[in-house]
Amino acid sequence: MSGASTAAGYDCRVAFADTLIALARADDRIVAVCNDSVGSSNLGGFREEFPERLINVGIAEQNMVGVAAGLANAGFIPFVSAASPFLTGRAMEQIKADIVYSGANVKLCGQSPGVSYGELGPTHHSIEDLAWMRALDNLPIVVPADPEQTRAAVLWAAAFDGPVFMRIGRHRVRSVSDGRDPAWTPGRAEVLLEGDDITIVAVGTMVEVALAAAEHLGRAGVHARVLNMASIHPLDRDAIIESARITGGIVTVEEAVPRGGLGGAVAELLAVEHPTRMRLLGTHAFAPTGNVDFLFEHFSLTPEGVARAAQDLMAAT
Q1: Nearest to 164 by CA among 144, 146, 180, 181
Q2: In the chain, where the domains are located
């Protein structure tokens, strides 16, 4: 584990940057493209070691994505690193036409997603990015839960021939991988906890929240099944359908708008394949001004809030 650890957890941006540097040392096709976000993307070490392979276009996200597409066409493997609200919001047309439609070998890395920017408010919150990216055909969408999974996902993305969208969390999380380096497989969920009463499906920062919620439920005699659905597209259809059959109820949890995001993806699948009782937890609306902890409380994205939603769902039968 890199030096990003504290009692409060780990910074996945450090795992992202450290892995990108290691890849660049081994492969001179690896380049980084950013929008005046060297600091917030934690790319200072990359710039120091590979100054000629970091392209900073300034606050010009549409140009940033276009430059990355050109680099990919020239045989490079560009990692575009920018705050997710500006990468996905300002450059959506370029992502659609220059990257995804064209099949360009570009890795789109949305930094500090969800409500990570706290008090900066809705202009800086990236709660719609999963829904926007899911609307694009054939784009892998990756939301790692911890540094180990971030590292594995970056290694996979570099070897994958085609576009990828990856969310890299800003606030610190604890490891849910127990120190192991998980092999990253698109379309594969990880069952972190077995249970037969209710299923909690979570992504990114919400995975540790889901595990803590399962502990709350366990003290009430409820055995929760917890899935880390770090691959939103492709989705692990089998894991979701099996969980629905085993538990008869599913709660999805994401630091994003469920409409079109993880919640939407799971609901779309189950509506056709195995209709199931559900609760979709997420941000749901533009957030009020406040720090991250306040916003998580506001949207019930806490262990207590998730446990309460699970119990309400079970009581509704």
Answers
A1: 144
A2: 12-168, 190-315
